[in-house]
Write a structure and sequence with these properties.
By secondary structure, the chain is mainly beta. The protein has six helices and 27 strands. Strand 6 and strand 7 form a beta hairpin.
Length: 423
């Protein structure tokens, strides 16, 4: 499968992002996952962030700086944005800054030159072909009084228009917003959150029908990823809770009809990505006396061999952002990147971000799991209210550079600037 260099998006992640923003400002109502009787995302084929965001093979690597010290990377360019721009993507070799219709009074996307960040074009709308992952391209989501109904938009529309398969699952809106979707092995995978009876559905995209159904309790907002060894799913830390004892990493091998417990992780998993034959994750384990230890894990192959467990000293703490985890972007060739706002050298056990500490870009070495700071974001560019962890849709890694939405106003992600950082 292609490398997914940005956090998964589409209708589910949009609903999650809206709910997280609303929770942070005290609004309890969840925005709708889809508006109207039927919403069909017909952006299949070669689109999607995974293909568009594949970096050029320019041999660039994050360098400079020992752990705990600023590195040699530099902020090379920045661009001001219209208010309420909150999502980054890559469209036709350009950086796309996608705005929100509800808050900006209209849906608008700016396309920026990736080298200079100068505007190339402005497009109406906020549903770019490459801002929606291939998995979401096949979803047909209808909000009805009985619940949110999920079907599959078939690859060959009928003569009457859009052709869709049978209803696969109907869930309350909250449950659907905290479910998950992925594509692997030519099939579409849907994790349907429904309390203790949550299920993982393997669906044929050509027929829109169910292939296999697996019972799995992975909680709300699970990590569901795919690599050369099949599909992987585990509970995440996004809701702030821990697993009862340890979190299970579940696996479905290519062509298999069995879901197996492949490995155990810690009490929480901050993030998890997969590429080739490896899984990378930020895993939290409980320690005597309370609190957590934090480490970057790499698990290799279908047998899930532990390649390393590297202590995480420069990365966001398990207590940051109301225990919701954070996001990394990148790939195994260049590394995985995130932002952090820590005091000297150690991750605090409790408390919020260190507001007096600088905001730094950290690189995680895929070969060893070790972290280093590669640059410090100047406050005059980053702004004073930027959160201390990387959120979904806030960054993309493209052609050897990291692009970040920064200069945030207040608790709502009201981003006003995009930065280019080249390690």
């Amino acid at each position: 499968m292609p490398e997914a260099e940005t956090p998964d998006g589409g209708v589910i992640e949009d609903a999650r992002a809206r709910q997280r923003r609303q929770r942070r400002v005290g609004i309890l109502a969840l925005a709708a996952v889809a508006v109207g009787a039927l919403a069909w995302f017909a952006f299949g084929g070669g689109g999607g962030v995974p293909n568009a965001a594949r970096p050029a093979d320019d041999g660039g690597r994050a360098g400079g700086g020992r752990p705990g010290s600023p590195g040699s990377a530099q902020v090379l360019a920045s661009a001001l944005l219209t208010p309420f721009a909150y999502r980054l993507a890559v469209e036709d070799g350009r950086v796309a800054v996608v705005g929100t219709a509800a808050e900006a009074g209209g849906c608008e996307t700016q396309l920026l030159d990736p080298r200079t960040l100068r505007p190339d074009a402005i497009k109406p709308g906020c549903a770019l072909r490459t801002s929606i992952p291939p998995s979401a391209a096949w979803l047909s989501v209808a909000q009805r009084p009985s619940g949110t109904s999920i079907r599959i938009a078939l690859e060959k529309p009928s003569a009457r228009g859009v052709s869709v398969g049978p209803t696969l699952v109907t869930l309350p809106e909250w449950d659907w917003a905290h479910s998950a979707v992925a594509r692997a092995g030519g099939e579409l995978w849907i994790y349907a959150l429904d309390g203790s009876a949550s299920t993982l559905l393997e669906v044929s995209p050509s027929r829109g029908t169910l292939v296999h159904r697996f019972a799995v309790a992975a909680g709300p907002d699970p990590f569901i990823v795919a690599d050369s060894d099949g599909l992987w799913i585990t509970e995440s830390a996004w809701t702030g809770g821990s697993c009862a004892s340890v979190c299970t990493l579940w696996h479905v091998a290519p062509g298999s009809d069995r879901l197996v417990a492949a490995h155990t992780l810690g009490l929480r998993t901050q993030w998890l990505v997969a590429s080739g034959h490896s899984i990378y994750a930020d895993v939290l384990e409980g320690v005597s006396g309370g609190g957590f230890s934090q480490a970057i894990w790499r698990l290799d192959g279908a047998k899930v061999r532990v390649a390393y467990e590297a202590p995480a000293k420069l990365l966001p703490s398990p207590e940051f952002a109301s225990l919701t985890g954070y996001v990394v972007v990148g790939n195994p060739a260049h590394g995985y990147f995130t932002i952090s706002e820590l005091g000297p050298d150690t991750t605090p056990d409790t408390g919020d971000c260190d507001a007096a500490a600088p905001i730094r870009v950290a690189r995680i070495d895929p070969l060893t799991g070790r972290q280093r700071y590669v640059t410090t974001l100047p406050r005059n560019l980053a702004g004073s209210a930027l959160d201390c962890h990387l959120s979904a849709h806030q960054a993309v890694f493209y052609a050897g550079s990291l692009y970040l939405l920064v200069q945030q106003s207040g608790d709502v992600p009201d981003y006003q600037r995009v930065l280019r950082v080249t390690p």
